[in-house]
Amino acid sequence: MRRARSGRHGAGRLAVRRVALVLLLLAAGPLAACDKPLYLTFDTGHMGVAPLVADVLSRRGVKATFFLAAERTQEGGHSLDDRWAAWWRARAGEGHVFGSHTYDHDVWVADIEGGFRLRPTQGPAAGRVRRADAADYCAQLVRPARRFEAMTGQAMSALFRAPGGRTSPSLLAAAAACGWTHVGWSAAGFLGDELPSERHPNPQLLARALRDIRAGDVLIAHLGIWSRRDAWAPAVLEPLIEGLQARGFCFRTLREHPLYAAASARPAP
Predict the structure, then answer these.
(1) Most buried residue, 82, 124, 165, 232, by most Cβ within 10 Å?
(2) Is the pLDDT of residue 1 over 90?
(3) Which of 8, 43, 20 is nearest to 163 (CA)?
(4) Domain tally for the chain?
Protein backbone atom coordinates (compact mmCIF):
# COMPACT_ATOMS: atom_id res chain seq x y z
CA MET A 1 0.00 0.00 0.00
CA ARG A 2 2.71 2.40 0.96
CA ARG A 3 4.58 1.80 -2.29
CA ALA A 4 1.42 2.21 -4.31
CA ARG A 5 0.60 5.45 -2.48
CA SER A 6 4.13 6.70 -3.04
CA GLY A 7 3.84 5.93 -6.76
CA ARG A 8 0.65 7.92 -7.02
CA HIS A 9 2.23 10.84 -5.18
CA GLY A 10 5.28 10.65 -7.45
CA ALA A 11 3.09 10.69 -10.53
CA GLY A 12 1.20 13.63 -9.08
CA ARG A 13 4.40 15.56 -8.41
CA LEU A 14 5.59 14.83 -11.97
CA ALA A 15 2.30 16.09 -13.39
CA VAL A 16 2.59 19.27 -11.34
CA ARG A 17 6.13 19.82 -12.57
CA ARG A 18 5.01 19.28 -16.17
CA VAL A 19 2.21 21.82 -15.76
CA ALA A 20 4.65 24.27 -14.21
CA LEU A 21 7.04 23.78 -17.11
CA VAL A 22 4.28 24.36 -19.67
CA LEU A 23 3.25 27.55 -17.86
CA LEU A 24 6.85 28.71 -17.79
CA LEU A 25 7.27 28.09 -21.51
CA LEU A 26 4.04 29.91 -22.27
CA ALA A 27 5.15 32.85 -20.16
CA ALA A 28 8.42 33.02 -22.05
CA GLY A 29 6.78 32.67 -25.45
CA PRO A 30 5.89 35.30 -28.03
CA LEU A 31 2.44 35.89 -26.54
CA ALA A 32 3.74 36.45 -23.01
CA ALA A 33 2.11 39.36 -21.22
CA CYS A 34 3.90 42.67 -21.65
CA ASP A 35 2.94 45.98 -20.11
CA LYS A 36 5.01 48.02 -22.62
CA PRO A 37 3.80 46.94 -26.06
CA LEU A 38 4.76 48.64 -29.32
CA TYR A 39 3.24 48.09 -32.75
CA LEU A 40 5.75 48.24 -35.59
CA THR A 41 4.23 48.80 -39.03
CA PHE A 42 5.71 49.05 -42.53
CA ASP A 43 4.24 50.55 -45.67
CA THR A 44 5.51 49.30 -49.02
CA GLY A 45 8.15 51.26 -50.95
CA HIS A 46 10.82 50.47 -53.52
CA MET A 47 11.49 47.19 -51.62
CA GLY A 48 15.25 47.64 -51.71
CA VAL A 49 15.49 47.08 -47.96
CA ALA A 50 12.76 44.45 -47.74
CA PRO A 51 15.17 41.47 -47.40
CA LEU A 52 17.08 43.31 -44.67
CA VAL A 53 13.86 44.16 -42.82
CA ALA A 54 12.75 40.53 -42.93
CA ASP A 55 16.12 39.35 -41.63
CA VAL A 56 16.16 41.83 -38.74
CA LEU A 57 12.60 41.02 -37.70
CA SER A 58 13.37 37.30 -37.75
CA ARG A 59 16.58 37.60 -35.73
CA ARG A 60 15.01 39.92 -33.16
CA GLY A 61 11.82 37.86 -32.84
CA VAL A 62 9.59 40.75 -33.90
CA LYS A 63 6.23 40.47 -35.63
CA ALA A 64 5.05 43.51 -37.57
CA THR A 65 2.09 44.74 -39.60
CA PHE A 66 2.56 45.52 -43.30
CA PHE A 67 0.37 47.78 -45.46
CA LEU A 68 0.52 46.87 -49.14
CA ALA A 69 0.34 48.95 -52.32
CA ALA A 70 1.66 48.17 -55.79
CA GLU A 71 4.65 50.54 -55.60
CA ARG A 72 7.45 50.81 -58.16
CA THR A 73 10.50 48.78 -57.19
CA GLN A 74 14.20 49.10 -57.88
CA GLU A 75 13.96 46.13 -60.26
CA GLY A 76 11.48 47.99 -62.45
CA GLY A 77 8.34 46.10 -61.47
CA HIS A 78 6.10 46.73 -58.49
CA SER A 79 5.93 45.48 -54.93
CA LEU A 80 3.04 43.07 -55.56
CA ASP A 81 4.28 41.50 -58.79
CA ASP A 82 5.36 37.90 -59.20
CA ARG A 83 8.97 38.68 -58.27
CA TRP A 84 7.85 39.56 -54.75
CA ALA A 85 5.23 36.84 -54.31
CA ALA A 86 7.64 34.47 -52.50
CA TRP A 87 8.75 37.27 -50.16
CA TRP A 88 5.17 38.04 -49.13
CA ARG A 89 4.38 34.34 -48.83
CA ALA A 90 7.32 33.90 -46.44
CA ARG A 91 6.22 36.84 -44.29
CA ALA A 92 2.68 35.48 -44.14
CA GLY A 93 4.07 32.16 -42.98
CA GLU A 94 5.95 33.91 -40.18
CA GLY A 95 2.76 35.29 -38.64
CA HIS A 96 2.91 38.96 -39.54
CA VAL A 97 -0.31 40.92 -40.18
CA PHE A 98 -1.21 42.59 -43.49
CA GLY A 99 -3.48 45.45 -44.51
CA SER A 100 -4.24 47.55 -47.58
CA HIS A 101 -2.45 50.75 -48.60
CA THR A 102 -4.62 51.19 -51.75
CA TYR A 103 -3.39 49.58 -54.94
CA ASP A 104 -2.14 52.73 -56.71
CA HIS A 105 -1.09 54.52 -53.51
CA ASP A 106 -4.00 56.95 -53.85
CA VAL A 107 -3.35 60.06 -51.75
CA TRP A 108 -6.48 61.90 -50.61
CA VAL A 109 -6.46 65.53 -51.77
CA ALA A 110 -9.96 66.85 -51.02
CA ASP A 111 -13.58 65.94 -50.54
CA ILE A 112 -15.89 66.88 -53.42
CA GLU A 113 -19.57 66.41 -54.05
CA GLY A 114 -20.18 62.71 -54.53
CA GLY A 115 -16.68 61.62 -53.58
CA PHE A 116 -13.05 62.68 -53.42
CA ARG A 117 -10.09 64.03 -55.30
CA LEU A 118 -7.20 61.57 -55.15
CA ARG A 119 -3.64 61.73 -56.46
CA PRO A 120 -2.18 58.28 -57.14
CA THR A 121 1.59 58.10 -56.94
CA GLN A 122 1.71 54.73 -58.72
CA GLY A 123 0.03 53.10 -61.69
CA PRO A 124 -1.02 54.50 -65.07
CA ALA A 125 -2.48 57.72 -63.61
CA ALA A 126 0.47 58.47 -61.30
CA GLY A 127 0.79 62.16 -60.46
CA ARG A 128 -2.58 63.18 -61.91
CA VAL A 129 -5.47 64.18 -59.67
CA ARG A 130 -8.54 62.08 -60.33
CA ARG A 131 -12.11 61.97 -59.10
CA ALA A 132 -13.37 58.94 -57.22
CA ASP A 133 -16.60 58.02 -55.49
CA ALA A 134 -16.88 55.75 -52.46
CA ALA A 135 -17.15 52.62 -54.57
CA ASP A 136 -13.98 53.54 -56.48
CA TYR A 137 -12.05 54.06 -53.25
CA CYS A 138 -13.27 50.76 -51.82
CA ALA A 139 -12.16 49.03 -55.02
CA GLN A 140 -8.68 50.51 -54.54
CA LEU A 141 -8.61 49.05 -51.01
CA VAL A 142 -9.74 45.61 -52.15
CA ARG A 143 -7.20 45.15 -54.98
CA PRO A 144 -4.15 44.64 -52.71
CA ALA A 145 -6.19 42.19 -50.62
CA ARG A 146 -7.04 40.07 -53.64
CA ARG A 147 -3.45 40.13 -54.84
CA PHE A 148 -2.13 39.25 -51.39
CA GLU A 149 -4.46 36.27 -51.16
CA ALA A 150 -3.39 35.10 -54.60
CA MET A 151 0.29 35.31 -53.59
CA THR A 152 0.04 33.78 -50.13
CA GLY A 153 -3.15 31.78 -49.87
CA GLN A 154 -4.05 33.85 -46.81
CA ALA A 155 -6.70 36.52 -46.35
CA MET A 156 -5.59 40.08 -45.68
CA SER A 157 -7.03 41.72 -42.57
CA ALA A 158 -9.69 44.43 -42.81
CA LEU A 159 -7.15 47.14 -41.91
CA PHE A 160 -5.94 49.93 -44.18
CA ARG A 161 -3.64 52.90 -44.05
CA ALA A 162 -4.35 55.84 -46.30
CA PRO A 163 -1.20 56.86 -48.22
CA GLY A 164 0.52 59.70 -46.43
CA GLY A 165 -1.96 59.23 -43.61
CA ARG A 166 -4.16 61.74 -45.43
CA THR A 167 -7.86 61.24 -44.75
CA SER A 168 -11.09 63.08 -44.13
CA PRO A 169 -14.14 62.07 -42.08
CA SER A 170 -15.95 61.37 -45.35
CA LEU A 171 -13.15 59.14 -46.64
CA LEU A 172 -12.99 57.19 -43.39
CA ALA A 173 -16.77 56.81 -43.39
CA ALA A 174 -16.74 55.50 -46.95
CA ALA A 175 -14.03 52.97 -46.11
CA ALA A 176 -15.82 51.89 -42.93
CA ALA A 177 -19.06 51.41 -44.89
CA CYS A 178 -17.33 48.83 -47.08
CA GLY A 179 -15.70 47.09 -44.11
CA TRP A 180 -12.29 48.73 -43.61
CA THR A 181 -10.72 50.20 -40.45
CA HIS A 182 -8.06 52.89 -40.78
CA VAL A 183 -4.73 52.76 -38.91
CA GLY A 184 -2.61 55.86 -38.43
CA TRP A 185 0.48 56.14 -36.24
CA SER A 186 1.63 57.82 -33.05
CA ALA A 187 3.47 61.13 -33.11
CA ALA A 188 6.63 59.58 -31.64
CA GLY A 189 6.09 56.55 -33.85
CA PHE A 190 6.92 58.49 -37.01
CA LEU A 191 10.42 57.08 -37.47
CA GLY A 192 11.47 59.61 -40.09
CA ASP A 193 12.64 57.39 -42.94
CA GLU A 194 10.80 59.67 -45.41
CA LEU A 195 12.68 62.78 -44.28
CA PRO A 196 15.73 64.17 -46.12
CA SER A 197 18.83 62.57 -44.67
CA GLU A 198 20.81 65.82 -45.08
CA ARG A 199 18.68 67.47 -42.40
CA HIS A 200 17.62 64.37 -40.48
CA PRO A 201 20.62 62.00 -40.29
CA ASN A 202 20.15 58.46 -39.11
CA PRO A 203 21.87 58.89 -35.70
CA GLN A 204 19.53 61.78 -34.93
CA LEU A 205 16.44 59.78 -35.90
CA LEU A 206 17.58 56.81 -33.81
CA ALA A 207 18.27 58.95 -30.74
CA ARG A 208 14.93 60.73 -31.03
CA ALA A 209 12.97 57.50 -31.35
CA LEU A 210 14.70 55.89 -28.38
CA ARG A 211 14.03 59.02 -26.33
CA ASP A 212 10.40 59.67 -27.26
CA ILE A 213 8.64 56.36 -27.96
CA ARG A 214 6.22 55.28 -25.26
CA ALA A 215 4.24 52.11 -24.55
CA GLY A 216 1.26 51.69 -26.86
CA ASP A 217 2.75 53.66 -29.76
CA VAL A 218 2.15 52.60 -33.36
CA LEU A 219 5.44 52.97 -35.27
CA ILE A 220 5.73 53.55 -39.02
CA ALA A 221 8.55 52.90 -41.49
CA HIS A 222 8.75 51.86 -45.14
CA LEU A 223 10.28 49.12 -47.27
CA GLY A 224 12.40 51.66 -49.12
CA ILE A 225 12.13 55.42 -49.78
CA TRP A 226 13.35 56.76 -53.12
CA SER A 227 14.09 60.29 -51.97
CA ARG A 228 16.26 59.51 -48.94
CA ARG A 229 19.96 59.42 -49.89
CA ASP A 230 21.21 57.75 -46.71
CA ALA A 231 18.89 54.74 -46.36
CA TRP A 232 17.25 54.50 -42.97
CA ALA A 233 16.73 50.80 -42.34
CA PRO A 234 20.31 49.51 -42.65
CA ALA A 235 21.52 52.01 -40.05
CA VAL A 236 18.56 52.37 -37.69
CA LEU A 237 16.14 49.45 -37.67
CA GLU A 238 18.10 46.85 -35.68
CA PRO A 239 19.67 49.30 -33.17
CA LEU A 240 16.19 50.75 -32.62
CA ILE A 241 14.58 47.38 -31.96
CA GLU A 242 17.49 46.28 -29.77
CA GLY A 243 17.40 49.52 -27.78
CA LEU A 244 13.65 49.38 -27.24
CA GLN A 245 13.74 45.74 -26.21
CA ALA A 246 16.53 46.55 -23.73
CA ARG A 247 14.18 49.13 -22.19
CA GLY A 248 11.53 46.50 -21.60
CA PHE A 249 9.35 47.15 -24.65
CA CYS A 250 7.85 44.25 -26.57
CA PHE A 251 6.60 44.20 -30.15
CA ARG A 252 3.11 43.10 -31.09
CA THR A 253 1.12 43.13 -34.31
CA LEU A 254 -2.09 45.10 -34.62
CA ARG A 255 -3.85 41.80 -33.98
CA GLU A 256 -3.05 42.48 -30.30
CA HIS A 257 -3.86 46.21 -30.34
CA PRO A 258 -6.98 47.07 -28.30
CA LEU A 259 -8.35 49.37 -31.02
CA TYR A 260 -7.54 47.19 -34.03
CA ALA A 261 -7.79 43.60 -32.81
CA ALA A 262 -11.34 43.09 -34.07
CA ALA A 263 -10.58 44.46 -37.55
CA SER A 264 -7.35 42.47 -37.69
CA ALA A 265 -9.31 39.31 -37.07
CA ARG A 266 -11.75 40.05 -39.89
CA PRO A 267 -10.77 39.12 -43.45
CA ALA A 268 -10.70 41.92 -45.98
CA PRO A 269 -14.10 42.53 -47.59
Answers:
(1) 232
(2) no
(3) 43
(4) 1
